[in-house]
Specification:
Largest sheet: 6 strands, mixed
CATH architecture: Sandwich
Radius of gyration: 16 Å
CATH class: Mainly Beta
Number of strands: 12
Structural class: mainly beta
CATH topology: Immunoglobulin-like
Number of domains: 1
Number of helices: 1
Order of helices and strands: EEEEEEEEEEEHE
Strand content: over 45%
Shape: globular
Helix content: under 10%
CATH superfamily: Immunoglobulins
Length: about 170
């Protein structure tokens, strides 16, 4: 299966060079997600993949601070660390959305004021990796949530995975 969504490349190794399929070096239960924001020499990256539902209180999210109109490169990676199971029809969803306050855990409504949103559905083979990136400029000062998440794992592993960071335009 091959899909190109919102400038991001996805596919299988057999499907061609549209998705990079690499062996994972770190073992985990299922999917590890990384989100990275860069501007010039500055970079902030998430270090934790969280699960929903979870009884654990989430740790504070990383924060990237930028000026209005600054060009930001947002990159995400999803790595399937289970060397045994193919996850079928997994949606990888990524977005930037205004939030009420820095550190907000609840996802704000994804309405018409969402500056960026994209998704891809794939069969996630063992030890596979998918990635994407986009550039965004936000002129409106405020706080934004940047998040990458899975949808479709709940029925397969009893949770979804996500990672997020805050973007403060000041």
């Amino acid at each position: 299966m091959i899909a190109i969504v919102d400038g991001c490349r996805f596919g299988t190794l057999i499907g061609a060079a549209l998705v990079l399929m690499l062996p994972a070096t770190v073992r985990a239960d299922d999917v590890k997600l990384v989100l990275r924001v860069t501007s010039g020499e500055r970079k902030v990256q998430t270090k934790v993949t969280r699960q929903e539902p979870s009884s654990q209180k989430p740790q504070p999210q990383p924060v990237f601070r930028a000026a209005p109109g600054e060009s930001l490169k947002v990159a995400w990676e999803a790595r399937h660390d289970d060397g045994k199971t193919t996850f079928k029809d997994v949606l990888v969803h990524f977005f930037v959305v205004p939030e009420k306050k820095v550190g907000q855990i609840a996802i704000p409504p994804l309405g018409k004021d969402v500056p960026h949103e994209g998704a891809v559905t794939l069969d996630f083979k063992p030890d596979a990796e998918a990635s994407g990136e986009f550039t965004i400029q936000l002129d409106q000062p405020g706080s934004y949530m940047i998040r990458v998440e899975t949808r479709g794992l709940l029925g397969q592993v009893q949770h979804e995975d996500y990672t997020a960071m805050d973007l403060v335009i000041e």
